Amino acid sequence: MADEVVIRAAGLTKRYAATLAVDHIDLEVHSSEIVGILGPNGSGKTTTILMLLGLTEPTEGRAEVAGFDPLREPLEVKRRVGYLPDSVGFYDGLSAHDNLAYTARLAGMSRREIDERFTEALARVGLSEVGRERVGTFSRGMRQRLGLAEILMKHPSIAILDEPTATLDPHSTQEFLGMIRALKNDGTAVLLSSHHLDQVQTVCDRVALFNQGRIALSGSVTDLARQVLGGGHVIDIEVRGVGVRDRLAGMSGVVRVQVMGPQLYRVDCERDLRPEIARLLAPSSELTGIRFAEPSLNEVYSRYFDEVRHAA
Amino acid sequence: MRRSGSPFIGTGIVLAKEAADQLSGIRMVVIEALVFLIALVLAWFSTATIRESIGQSPFLFLRLLTMAPDPIPFSFIDTVGLVTPVIAIALGFDAINAEFNQRTLSRILAQPIYRDALLLGKFLARLLALAIALLSLWLLVLGVGFLRLGLPPSGEELVRMLGFLVATIAYGGVWLAVAFLFSILFRAPATAALAALGLWLVFSFFWSLVIKPLAATLIAGPPEDIFGPNLAYIQTSQALDRISPNTLYAEIALALLQPATRTLGPVFISQLRGALLGAPLPASQSFILVWPQLTGLIAAMILIFAAGYVVFQRQEIRA
Prior knowledge:
The complex is a heterodimer. By secondary structure, chain A is α/β, with parallel strands linked by helices. Chain A is built from eleven helices and 13 strands. Chain A folds into two domains: 5-219, Rossmann fold (3-Layer(aba) Sandwich); 231-311, 2-Layer Sandwich (Alpha-Beta Plaits), CATH 3.30.70. In chain A, the strands form three sheets. Chain A has a six-stranded mixed β-sheet with strand order 5-6-7-3-8-9, sandwiched between helices. Chain A has a four-stranded antiparallel β-sheet with strand order 11-12-10-13. Chain A has a three-stranded antiparallel β-sheet with strand order 2-1-4, covered by helices on one side. In chain A, β11 (254-261) and β12 (264-269) form a beta hairpin. In chain A, α3 runs parallel beside α5 (140-154), α5 runs parallel beside α6 (170-185) and α8 runs parallel beside α11. In chain A, 40% of the residues are buried. By secondary structure, chain B is mainly alpha-helical. In chain B, strands 1-2 form a two-stranded antiparallel sheet. In chain B, a hairpin with a 2-residue loop joins β1 and β2 (228-229). Chain B starts with 10 loop residues before the first helix and ends in a 5-residue tail after the last helix. The chains are: A alpha/beta, B mainly alpha. Chain A binds chain B through residues 46, 50, 53, 55-56, 71-76, 78-79, 81-83, 85, 87-93, 102-103, 105-108, 147, 150, and chain B through 1-5, 9-10, 13-14, 17, 21, 102-114, 316-319.
């Protein structure tokens, strides 16, 4: 599948009585792409996911998932989409195999397919040793992995993951993020909802920022940084010297200078000032590095919501 | 708006999984133990009493079900009438809310099935478990009776007992549907169980004693007027009584297991002209007599299930 649009939402809206949960959102996700959806609690992320899965009906607008309308053809959509809900639940009294075999049968797999795919999926998530054990004995991290194994068994073209790392420890989180990247490498489009901005930044190609039911910002992290932090460039400078901050602040085209560490400065500029900065600092200071800073999604997020609060 | 695909895709898979869960669970072990105890104790004492009077009645096996054997104050049908709703409620009170609480519902419904399949599969699996429990009870009583009396049941007795079994399953189905409805309405299983048991208590103990006489008096006047019994009161009282599934079931049990029963309402002198009092009715006539009650129980089960179905279809699935 060559860069095909696998999820398309146009004017998707969900209203609960007087509350507008999702307000005319437009969203596109391409194959082999990881798109992160961010936003505070109640901003409409999960409702959007449920509408894309056909688990709740939109009030207005339409969506197309894997080429099908989730409202009219939910079974076709669900055959092609793997879904991992926030804090996934399993039947504790059943083994990992029986839990996954049940959903696999519901997904239409034969007994032979189930056995083959189960072994393969459990190996990929690192649970091969516990496939026949009761899920009641599993830790949260193991349950999340088992949820991912369920998605892998389905061989979906789209995976929708709703806060999959919310309850994981840092080590499990890193492993889980690796598995999400592997999904992308398999050609699966991933829609990832999360509150962990650093994680979203490390795995997502694009990000959609939800606020009060709308997509307030969307694009790559660099695009978002440009929209929120200003139209210029952010340059990180490693330099040893005296009065560096004042000299940088006095340059034409510099918007802001932040001291990030003992010898590390971050400069927001209106244009690429790297040559001028090098010329300014080199004669009197020991300049060891000058490069474009990777914008932080955390910073973008915080700044955006600060501005929203101030505007309100 | 028409949605593609059958709403029943996956029903068989849900039914198989749920039936396996029910039949292999500890809950079913407890139910079966209860059933075994009831069947054994009641059949044992009943047959002891009946053995002393063999030859006095052509319907020995029916007497086995209807008599209250010394020293037990309840008959078999009284006990089944009490125990069946409890078993049904025990099977159904956490059918749906447990899925919410275990957070399995959205994962299951993210598979290519409609909610209809999940709900119907779960209900049918529990009805099957209930039917198995009641069939075991029925067979045990039949077996103990056969062993202790040394006589097989007649064909007519078997037909009547089978009719009673079907009615008991339908009666249990009504309380299962009630428990199911509450398991959809209430997220806490304890609340659902209490609500279902509360409703059962109302119909079992308060309906006929308090609610029905009050309502009938308000609608049709006092039970007696200057000419004697008030017929409007009697008819209103009976109509109100039949709102209770317990009454419908009791009437079916009475007509099927006591073949001399000729009517289930008020009897007028004109209707008794030419009748042989105490003579049994043929089984087919008894079935005609209880047909409205039996269809009423089945209709009530379907209606209550449908109410739960509508509520479940409108619920937001976030767990």
